[in-house]
Specification:
By secondary structure, this protein is α+β, with helices and mostly antiparallel strands. Helices cover 36% and strands 13% of the residues. It is built from 9 helices and 6 strands, in the order H-H-H-E-H-E-H-E-E-H-H-H-H-E-E. The strands form 2 sheets. The protein has a 4-stranded antiparallel β-sheet with strand order 3-4-6-5. Helix 3 packs parallel to helix 4. It starts with 13 loop residues before the first helix and ends in a 13-residue tail after the last strand.
Length: 232
């Protein structure tokens, strides 16, 4: 979860938090093995197994997030949904948690749906990226291709906003006009048409489909900027 403070029950110990899933699914692990498995999970996420009787308020934000990861691993899942898991953490702690997620993915052979707004974190951890605007997919594809060759105007504007030390690079920032429309009452046609510099009458009347652009990419735009990968 995004908030490592509110996502753990303050009245439960670490032992109770991690073992709660086994109470719901008692056939997965005999109760006689709970203590051993909890200690192994805590060690796996970089925590001290002696912390089992402590409460959430006795830990830092990064430690709480590690407890949350251990709880997610308790059912040995094939897929974990990470909902902004590092946005509430300090930058140094963010790196630790992201590296931990990488290590766990390799060890357990699982997949992540990683929801985030930090573009550098997304590029580091993702194999495939989906760019969304007002609840709709604007573009998808292999992460390196989307970052290097964005096809949708919103993706282009989003990536251009990343701060760069090069003054010449900063001059290429795409500044979007107007405010983001309400997701409760989105504009007709393409949801990005009110802020898009490419928008035409068709964009205000029709909803673009998510079309295949090749190279594993898809884009929901009537006028995508398509560049091909050239292999040497």
């Amino acid at each position: 979860f995004q908030d490592p403070y509110d996502s753990l029950n303050p009245r439960m110990t670490v032992k109770q938090i991690i073992s709660e899933a086994w109470k719901v699914f008692p056939d997965l692990l005999p109760k006689s093995k709970w203590d051993q498995q909890i200690c192994e999970l805590l060690i796996r996420v970089g925590m001290n197994p002696q912390d089992t009787e402590r409460f959430p308020h006795q830990f830092s934000g990064g430690q709480r997030q590690r407890i949350g990861i251990a709880r997610a691993l308790s059912l040995n899942p094939e897929l974990i949904v990470c909902d902004e898991p590092v946005s509430a953490l300090d930058v140094s702690v963010q790196a630790q948690v992201v590296n931990l997620l990488d290590e766990i993915q390799e060890s357990f052979g699982l997949s992540y749906i990683f929801i985030a707004h930090d573009l550098s974190v997304i590029r580091h951890i993702s194999d495939r990226v989906f760019v969304m605007y007002l609840g709709k997919i604007a573009e998808s594809g292999p992460v390196d291709i989307v970052y290097e060759l964005p096809a949708h105007p919103y993706t282009q504007a989003l990536l251009s906003s990343v701060p760069l030390p090069d003054k010449k690079a900063r001059a290429r920032i795409i500044k979007l006009e107007g405010d983001v429309p309400s997701p409760i009452n989105p504009p007709e046609g393409c949801r990005f048409n009110t802020r898009c510099w490419k928008a035409q009458e068709r964009c205000r009347q029709e909803i673009p489909s998510l079309d295949d652009l090749g190279d594993g990419r898809s884009c929901a735009c009537f006028f995508p900027e398509v560049k091909r990968i050239i292999s040497a």
